[in-house]
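Sat 14:20. Reprocessing the chain from the morning session after the first attempt stalled halfway. Input below, unchanged.
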Amino acid sequence: MLGGSRSISQHLRDYHCNPRQFGVYTDYTKPFLGLLPFSFSPSSKRFFRLRLFNINSSYSSTTNNNDEFFRVSFVNNDNCVTNTVPSSLLSDVLSPMDDDQEPPSEGLSIVAGGIVALGKFDALHIGHRELAIQAAKIGVPFLLAFVGMAEILGWEPRAPIVAKCDRKRVLSSWAPHCGNVTPREFEVEFSKVRHLTPRQFVEKLAKELRVHGVVAGQNYRFGYRAAGDARDLVQLCKEYGIGAYIINPVMDKNQDSANINSRSSKEQGQVSSTRVRHALSKGDMKYVSELLGRHHRLMVMLKNKGKVSSDRKRLSAPRSCLLNLPPKEGTYSNCSLLIDDKNVVPCRITIDTTEIHLDYDLAASTHFTSPDLELLGIDFGESMV
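Finished this time. Tokens:
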């Protein structure tokens, strides 16, 4: 068996493969991404662990007739191409699992072998993006998000900063920063992890989810009652055989923490979802854009609820149509209206206590009278009238 990453990479180049996403499976196992355990044949009792991450190409080569073949999936974002690969190729990138290791269980999660970023990803701001960037440098990046926290902890319901239907677009925009790989989200029910100690949480990551590593910020806390900190995370991950990578927070260079109305002990001047909400409440869209690394996009579910003015220059809709958090009441110029994410129309937005009003060019009015129009996106510029 060849050793060292250099010989592995060279061998893959010989087969026209590039280091991106890689999945391996036989007819009697399931496909996974990243760190993949499997056996060479149904009669084999020994399992092998894939040491290589991220292959993103097709395989083509003349093969030895004596080779045993496996089916391999080469994944590029949402596309998957399955090819037949001889064991002579795989043998150079696989190593046997230790004899005392457990064989792989059925139904591994999609994050098996991946690198998960840990945090609360409400705003998907530049600090969150940095976590994804660091995860992508190590392996296949995932954002590990907890769902159902507000209900269990009794928090008051509040609109999300990023609409659920818009999160995939935002993550796709991070791909150029992440080696042209789009980070994916993996949701865990908060009720299932709420009472876990820091050790139990890391054990879940290692044994149940089988992640290869985690990335977190210096201020990250985890476990029941936030008992564990970043140093605990590093130590526990070491014990359970997974990597832990702690990064410095992305600091907010334009505002200091004294200007943020927050009771959080974590507020130390870093970019945060709290700061994004604060900037939106002030209508400071330039500041919002700096924190997000993009324009804030407001999503409007319009079907059967929008009213077009008689002069066909204004569309109005009740605030109940908004799918995420709008900025403060007022009028905003230099906005862009996205119709089905295809047609972009310059517009002016006015938000009052009950409605949102969109003033646009007359030529765009034909789009708003279509019975098929359901969803609008509004990208806010950096000025408020």
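Residues 297-384 form a domain with the Elongation Factor Tu (Ef-tu); domain 3 fold (CATH 2.40.30).
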